[in-house]
Design brief:
The protein is of the alpha+beta class. The protein contains 18 helices and eight strands. It folds into three domains: 179 residues, GAF domain (Beta-Lactamase), CATH 3.30.450; 174 residues, Orthogonal Bundle (Hypothetical protein af1432), CATH 1.10.3210.10; 99 residues, no CATH class. Helix 9 runs antiparallel to helix 10. The longest helix has 45 residues.
């Protein structure tokens, strides 16, 4: 082996160790082997269960280069049969040299012959080298075709070429295995993240599809941005980091109390039960007083009707999306009303605690409950601080824990504003608000029509200054919600009619 070949092998080792895309890696393996052995064509197979599958094909004469972009060659797989030269090399873990395939009866060359008949190529010499990892596990095969002499004529592969190909195959096997290990570790981490996100979903029937919907919107939105010359672009790694942040952005809800997260109405179930029991008590006391002769039957009927009206009022306030002033006034009157209890006390028809809950203007959460709910972003940050993220995922914790920050400083938990909020967080916030507006699984509100949701986004961006106006406009233009679970078809008609 010449010093030049040794240097080339060292260069190949460095080249292969720096490549993490499996398709480009396989292409480089075959290209390096062909360059070192000075041959005209080659094929790289990878073992898949009990067959060898074509992954990379190169033929310089025919200018055929298939597989480097991930496209699989449309050729039938090679069974692990001893009649097939590639399979035999892998089964016996040995190199196989063939001077001329047309004069060799030892192996089945019907495949190359059929290929030659279709392309008018002439397959002659062949070198087959198996690839195995450190543990001796079979990975695949390098098949090199038609060695060339200095004048460019087809000749046989010499023994020195076998050593060179063997060296490349050995380095390739280690690199392929390392890439597979990295892929497995990555898939393990991604599956863990999805499992944690599912754990949040399974805690409650509400908000269950939120991260998945956001991930769908985000993937389409980033693809759309990458097509625009006037928009920020994302590499696949940057997109993956952003997607990971979305999957983890609500992980803090794992410890949010369910009575807060699932609160569909202003009163908690036990509070509503206490109020209903109080109305029944007032009705029974009225009946007792009527039987004692303290009040008339008509007076009893008035009290019964008033308790029914009170229950209707509370039901209305309890489930209202927004509490209007007239409803609040009626609640105040009900709170101030008292009745005579059996023990001689005079309780209010509506307790102060019940009144405070029913007086919540928008939504179902009290100020204290809202603070508990908002703590999920701080808990998200705390939980993610325990994970050692790789360099290409180094921003996940920050982005996931900042998705409620607003450009005008009105968000939480750190009240960031303007340039303090990264581009990726601005995107997550838009997606988060949009899905919250159109979601049909929230306990405290009905899903808004798409046109209304988009109008609110514009208002938040252009008038309130909460959202990035450029990203909001691009999001709306992207229509990335189309064909999602929420909007399964195109939305032109929905946008026009607002239904």
């Amino acid at each position: 082996m010449t010093q030049e070949n040794i240097n080339k092998i060292l260069e190949i080792g460095i080249l292969l160790s720096s490549e993490h895309d499996v398709n480009r890696l396989l292409e480089q393996i075959l290209s390096c082997a062909m360059e070192l052995t000075h041959c005209d064509a080659g094929t790289l197979y990878l073992l898949d269960n009990d067959v060898l599958r074509f992954r990379i094909m190169r033929n310089n004469t025919l200018k055929t280069y298939i597989g480097g972009d991930g496209t699989m060659p449309q050729l039938p797989p090679v069974p692990l049969s001893r009649e097939n030269v590639c399979a035999l090399a892998l089964l016996d873990n040995r190199n196989i040299l063939v001077e001329d395939v047309r004069s060799c009866d030892e192996y089945d060359f019907s495949g190359p012959m059929h290929y030659d008949a279709l392309t008018k190529y002439r397959t002659k010499s062949m070198l087959v080298v198996p690839m195995r990892n450190r543990q001796g596990e079979r990975l695949g095969v390098l098949q090199l075709i038609n060695a060339l002499d200095e004048e460019g004529n087809v000749c046989g592969f010499v023994q020195s070429m076998v050593l060179l190909a063997e060296s490349v195959a050995s380095q390739a096997a280690v690199t392929i295995q390392n890439v597979r290990y990295m892929k497995e570790i990555k898939e393990l981490f991604h599956s863990f993240v999805r499992a944690m996100s599912t754990a949040v979903d399974e805690r409650t029937p509400y908000n269950g599809s939120h991260p998945r919907h956001m991930a769908e919107y985000c993937s389409r939105f980033i693809d759309y941005l990458n097509t625009r010359s006037d928009a920020p672009h994302f590499t696949p790694a940057q997109k993956e980091e952003l997607m990971m942040s979305i999957w983890l952005h609500d992980i803090g809800k794992l410890v949010t109390p369910l009575e807060v997260m699932n609160k569909a109405k202003r009163l908690l179930p036990e509070q509503y039960a206490n109020f209903s029991h109080r109305m029944e008590t007032i009705r029974l006391l009225a009946q007792i007083r009527q039987l004692k002769g303290d009040i008339s039957a008509s007076e009893r009927d008035v009290l019964v009707r008033q308790t029914q009206e009170a229950s209707s009022l509370v039901d209305q306030a309890n489930s209202a999306v927004f509490l209007k002033n007239d409803l609040l006034e009626e609640l105040t009157k009900l709170r101030d009303r008292i009745y005579a209890a059996e023990d001689g006390s005079f309780p209010h028809w509506l307790t102060q605690e019940e009144y405070d809950m029913l007086s919540i203007r928008r939504g179902t959460l009290s100020e204290a409950e809202r603070k508990i709910m908002e703590q999920h972003v701080e808990i998200t940050d705390k939980l993610l601080s325990q994970i050692h993220f790789s360099k290409d995922m180094s921003h996940v914790r920050e982005w996931a824990a900042s998705h409620h920050e607003l450009l005008n400083g009105g968000g939480y938990p750190r009240r960031l504003k303007g340039d303090e909020i990264p581009l990726q967080v601005r995107i997550i916030t838009i997606l988060d608000i949009f899905d919250a507006l159109v979601a049909n699984d929230r306990p405290y509100k009905k899903a808004l029509p798409l046109s209304k949701a988009l109008s609110i986004l514009r208002e938040n961006a252009e008038q309130r200054g909460e959202l990035d106006p450029v990203l909001t406009r691009l999001f709306i233009e992207s229509r990335c919600w189309e064909y999602s679970e929420t909007f399964p078809g195109k939305t032109d008609e929905i946008l026009q009619t607002g239904v």
